[in-house]
Amino acid sequence: MLTGALVLAPEPGSPAAKAGLQEGDVIVALEGEPVEGVDVLHRLLSEKRIGVRTKLILLRGSRKFEVVMVPDVRPA
User: Fold this and answer.
1) pTM of this prediction?
2) How far apart are CA 17 and CA 73, in angstroms?
3) Beta strand extents in the chain (DSSP E only)
4) How far is 70 from 40, CA to CA, in rounded Å?
5) Phi and psi at residue 69, in whole multiples of 5°?
6) What is the mean pLDDT of each run of 10 residues along the chain (76 residues)?
């Protein structure tokens, strides 16, 4: 069974939206590290990733592909 973090709705203008993530995508890896769920994704998206090009592996339907995003600080 494949696990990952489901993308619900990327906020317009967010790093995820700029990278092309869409509702329903499933993030399965971040910089080669498996993403077993949203808690793991949050742990991997630490402060050291802010402003750094980061490779994600996604599933969209039956297609697997790679995107690059630059994480940013989320406004309060």
Assistant:
1) 0.89
2) 14
3) 5-6, 26-30, 33-34, 54-60, 63-69
4) 18
5) -130, 160
6) 89 92 96 95 89 96 94 76
